[in-house]
Write a sequence for this structure.
C-alpha cells in the first residue's frame, strides 16, 4: 500500500519520469565534484562567479577604463591582424574612441590617453611579424 501522506508535485513527477527515461544520464560533469564545493562556504559565491564571467575582456569596466585596457593590449591585438590595412583600420577606430573619451563623450573617469600613431603601430606590427617569421624559420 502506498504511503497515504506522500504527495508528488508536478515538478517532482516530471523529474522522476525524465530520470526513468535516462535524460539525466551522461551529462557533462557527471561524477565530478561541484566547482567550489568542499572549501569554506562563501555566501557571495554566485556574485563573484557572475562578476568573473561578465568581466572577462573588460566587459564590466566603464567605457573609458575599457579603452585604457584596450590601449594597453594594443600590440597583442594588432599582432592578430592579417594585413597592414587591418592594422590601420583598427588603430583608426581606436583613435576615434580615444578622441571621444578625451572630449568627455564616454562614460567613466576622464582619460589622458593620447591617440596612437598609426604609422608607429604599423612599423611595430611589421617588425614583430618579421621577427616571428625569423623565429619559425630557424
Amino acid at each position: 500500500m502506498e504511503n497515504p501522506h506522500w504527495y508528488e508535485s508536478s515538478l517532482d513527477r516530471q523529474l522522476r519520469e525524465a530520470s526513468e527515461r535516462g535524460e539525466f544520464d551522461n551529462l557533462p560533469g557527471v561524477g565530478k565534484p561541484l566547482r567550489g564545493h568542499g572549501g569554506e562556504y562563501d555566501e557571495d559565491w554566485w556574485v563573484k562567479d557572475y562578476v568573473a564571467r561578465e568581466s572577462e575582456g573588460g566587459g564590466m569596466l566603464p567605457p573609458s577604463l575599457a579603452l585604457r585596457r584596450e590601449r594597453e593590449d594594443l600590440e597583442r591585438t594588432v599582432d592578430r591582424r592579417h594585413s597592414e590595412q587591418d592594422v590601420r583600420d583598427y588603430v583608426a577606430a581606436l583613435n576615434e574612441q580615444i578622441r571621444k573619451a578625451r572630449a568627455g563623450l564616454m562614460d567613466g573617469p576622464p582619460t589622458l590617453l593620447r591617440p596612437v600613431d598609426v604609422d608607429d603601430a604599423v612599423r611595430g606590427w611589421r617588425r614583430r611579424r618579421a621577427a616571428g617569421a625569423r623565429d619559425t624559420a630557424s
